[in-house]
Amino acid sequence: MTGSDLVPMDTQTAIANLARRHKAAGGVGMQVLNMVGGRAENLLERLPDPVKLGLEGATERALKVALYAAKHSRGVVPDQKGWLNTALTTTMGAVGGAGGLPTALAELPVTTTVLLRAVQGIAAEHGFDPNDPDVLGDCLTVFASAGPLAEDDGANTAFFSTRVTLTGAAVHGILKSVAPRLATVLGQKLAAQTVPILGAAAGAATNYAFTSYYQEMAHVHFGLRRLAIDSGQSETLLVEDLKRAIKNV
What is the pLDDT of residues 173-197, one digit of tens each? Predict the structure, then answer.
């Protein structure tokens, strides 16, 4: 008997919907790759060596800025609709791409902050408290997915099973854990933004793809958590059912 044999039909329907949402998350990213030319793994080769070497450190710093800014802005700036987050980051991507690599690098922590706030807002939509250390840890682990420009090799489902509590002692550890994968993803973003001639258009399209992707992945992640709570089913089994459903979409 498999996990899916134990899951009620309405829960299976919900999992199927989450699987379709997961598949849709990367669709825009493939359009970006077609626009800028080449494959995701080749984009990083377009970056200067000093940028590639410093990418992980820059990503970790961007995450720290995002974590601090998101935490202190929640009481001042309300959560925004998904389309508004996408519009904002798309505009920032255009500005970053228009100025080449220097402005794209400067835009990085700002976009990361907006993305983290968007993920926190989606957690709240699903009934979770974004200020809860467990939930905030979950918000950060959403960034551990493979990214919108990557082929689905299973890496963008592994984070569903990850659980961290963002206590003071754990902050450094989770940032160190998330930063390497996110650095690869953001390196692809930077490279796409600095494609000659396309510039601002590539930057806008890339940020659109990234924002759409992480918002969809957050809906899948927190939707699955909510489903486990509401259905009383084991979250571990639901994760396995979701992985199977994704393969069949």
Answer: 777 788 888 888 888 878 877 766 6
Strands (E), 36-84: none
Q: What angle, 0 to 180 degrees and rounded to 10, lies between the N-to-C axes of helices 168-193 and 49-73? A: 130
* Helix, strand, coil percent content, the chain, rounded in steps of 5: 80, 0, 20
Q: Is the pLDDT of residue 2 over 50?
A: no
Model pTM? Answer: 0.79
Residue with tokens 């070497």: 53
What the block records as the tokens of 22 is 């997961």
SS3 readout for 225-238:
HHHHHHHCCCHHHH
* Sign, Cα dihedral of 211, 182, 34, 244: negative
Widest pairwise Cα distance in the chain? 57
221: left (phi over 0), alpha (psi -120 to 50) or beta: alpha
